[in-house]
Write a structure and sequence with these properties.
Layout: H1 2-30, H2 32-53, H3 65-99, H4 102-114, H5 120-138, H6 155-181, H7 186-204, H8 220-247, H9 250-256, H10 260-272, H11 278-295
């Protein structure tokens, strides 16, 4: 059964990897707030329809309403506003590197609040997978190949935004796990956290402040360009991640579902016809070895 949960976590990474390939441009053009709001509203609508059609609302353990609230406000709203702001200023590689820190943070929180303890082999496997992930991010792009590496503003601000996003993402996972263990289906949990976040941002958007306005005029093509990675992330990836979280340790799920940079390597090679550097492939190999240790630990 463990291989199913681990495969779900890996599938979440693949969905996020594909989404990341197309998310940078609309995020830059629309701005953090409008990009996040557009994705959340469209994705929550799809999730609500799916859960209703599947009659999954009956699985929701409503006594865990506080978990759903924290997962929405901290795990989605704050995470994504910080992450998209980091993406706009620091580019995808730096953002991936910083947000990947959610894995060790989630492992620490899982130990402190949920009493989760890894076996020695699983710990080493998670450490290898995480080290490989960092190598894949650090060496995943040749600096001369892409304008996405240009730093906009202060590096210190980028680091703070990325670490805030990583911490909030880990908190959201920890908050939601008790509800999942109590029987709430991953799809229903995903719909509640995404729908709650969409409602919050929609209410905030009613405030007539310039900071909430799109940076660029919304066009049908730009909106669609923003919605597609949203479906891959909020609908597909999050549902797979929560399914994995329902049956496996938080820290390991966080590591494997953060492995999007590993999947990005072949996608990048295919789309740009530029082979990623050797250290990045070595990192991908370490991640595979670490995953094997986890699977058979």
């Amino acid at each position: 059964m463990s291989i199913i949960y681990l495969s779900a976590a890996g599938g979440a990474s693949l969905c996020w990897a594909i989404g990341a390939m197309v998310a940078h441009r609309p995020a830059t053009l629309l701005g953090a707030f409008e990009f996040t709001r557009t994705q959340l509203i469209s994705s929550s609508a799809v999730l609500l329809c799916l859960v209703t059609a599947l009659d999954d609302w009956r699985s929701v353990t409503w006594e865990h309403w506080a978990s759903f609230t924290v997962a929405s406000l901290v795990g989605v709203v704050l995470t994504n506003l910080a992450m998209v702001s980091c993406l706009r200023r620091g580019g995808p590689r730096r953002t991936q590197l910083l947000v990947a820190m959610n894995a060790p943070i989630a492992a620490i929180l899982g130990y402190g609040f949920l009493g989760e303890v890894m076996s020695t082999q699983k710990f080493y496997g998670a450490a290898l997978a995480f080290a490989g992930l960092l190598l894949a991010i650090l060496f995943g792009r040749r600096t001369e190949e892409s304008r996405l590496e240009v730093l906009q503003g202060s590096l210190a601000v980028v680091v703070v935004l990325g670490l805030v996003a990583a911490t909030c993402k880990a908190v959201g996972l920890i908050a939601l796990k008790p509800a999942l263990l109590a029987g709430t289906s991953p799809l229903a949990a995903s719909a509640l956290r995404t729908g709650g976040a969409a409602l919050v941002l929609s209410v905030i958007a009613l405030w007539p402040a310039e900071v909430f306005d799109p940076l660029t005029k919304r066009t049908p093509g730009l909106v669609i360009h923003a919605i597609v990675p949203g479906f891959l992330g909020y609908v597909a990836a999050v549902s797979l991640q929560l399914y994995a979280l329902q049956g496996y340790d938080t820290g390991i799920v966080a590591v494997l579902s953060s492995a999007a940079p590993v999947f990005i390597l072949p996608l990048q090679w295919v789309t740009t016809h530029v082979r990623p550097p050797t250290p990045a492939w070595f990192g991908a190999g370490l991640t595979l070895v670490g995953t094997g240790l986890i699977l058979y630990g």
